[in-house]
Design brief:
It is found in: Membrane. Keywords: Membrane, Transmembrane, Transmembrane helix. This is G-protein coupled receptors family 1 profile domain-containing protein. By secondary structure, the protein is mainly alpha-helical. It has one domain: Rhodopsin 7-helix transmembrane proteins (Rhopdopsin 7-helix transmembrane proteins, Up-down Bundle). It is built from twelve helices and two strands; from the N terminus they run αααααααββααααα.
């Protein structure tokens, strides 16, 4: 009860503040047209929806207010929004990794695919896809389900197993595999790629070399930031997928009150761990990205520098 009362409240404030700052920085004029930052920005927007749709009910539960999980409509709508926003937040990072691969490739054809238009189409596509995938929640999920970690849960064992395996596949396993593949390819591209100045356009000769150096420096910054974040997210999200599978498979087994109490405690901690991973993007980017820090400092000076007044 104490964890549900204070932990989610802190995480809502912490995560909302982090993601709003992240959106502000990534929408800055010098960054907002870069395809990778479009993916990261939408990941932060989805993370805010994910945090509020998941943690607000846990905060209320800490004060013995359980009506969102005990009424059918709020239960189903909340889980529908939660699952879509979680999936979009994860797959936006997948898109960002694919973009890093494209823009680091030695072939001009591949590099030309790294565009803002393609990023927007990818994000719209995954949103529509997951909106259809999770429609099954309106059938499978019920309120007031007994003997499970939270009352708003799968109505029977087949639904629980399907839902939990969808969580594992869509939010953890498949994104991890794709990110590992494209991350490896991006590292290989960075080692193999040789960029030569353009010599056939006379008026660009003087500036091409400096532009290439600046672009590659920015690309390395974004790639470094992204790799650290996705590693952080997937390592800390994995316990949730494992525990949900365990909870579903043992939901119909007889359990002592002590075992139920221990499982509920573990679940409360694991849930906070999941939301923590999606609440730290601003802090991770600030610590790991020189380009990000420079942009944030420029915004801070612009909006909060009162020394000149």
């Amino acid at each position: 009860m104490q964890i549900n009362r204070y932990g989610p409240t802190f995480m809502i404030i912490f995560g909302t503040f982090s993601n709003i700052l992240n959106i502000c920085v990534l929408r800055e004029r010098s960054l907002k047209k870069i395809p990778c930052t479009i993916y990261l920005c939408w990941s932060s927007i989805s993370a805010i929806v994910f945090i509020w749709s998941g943690l607000l009910t846990r905060t209320l539960q800490g004060y013995n207010i359980n009506w969102p999980n005990e009424n059918q409509a709020p239960c189903k709508i909340r889980l529908y929004l939660l699952n879509i926003s979680w999936a979009v937040a994860i797959w936006a990072l997948v898109g960002a990794n694919i973009d890093r691969f494209l823009c680091s490739h030695h072939s001009v054809i591949y590099r030309q695919l790294s565009t803002a238009q393609l990023a927007e189409r990818f994000l719209m596509g995954i949103f529509i896809f997951f909106a259809f995938v999770f429609i099954e929640i309106f059938y499978c999920v019920e309120a007031k389900v007994p003997n499970v970690p939270v009352a708003c849960y799968g109505r029977n064992l087949p639904c629980r197993v399907i839902n939990d395996w969808v969580y594992l596949a869509v939010d953890i396993i498949l994104p991890s595999i794709i990110i590992s593949i494209f991350g490896t390819l991006t590292i290989r591209n960075a080692r193999l790629r040789i960029v030569r100045p353009i010599t056939n356009l006379i008026h660009q000769i003087a500036t091409t070399k400096n532009n290439i150096v600046l672009t590659r420096r920015n690309d390395r910054n974004l790639t470094h930031m992204l790799f650290i974040q996705v590693s952080f997210v997937f390592v800390l999200d994995l316990p949730f997928g494992i525990y949900r599978s365990y909870a579903s498979l043992t939901a119909n087994l007889p359990k002592s009150q002590y075992r139920v109490a221990v499982e509920n405690l573990i679940y409360a901690l694991i849930v906070l761990l999941v939301y923590f991973t999606h609440s730290t993007s601003f802090y991770i980017y600030t610590l790991t990205g020189k380009l990000y820090r420079a942009t944030f400092e420029r915004l801070r000076r612009h909006y909060f520098n009162f020394n000149s007044i």
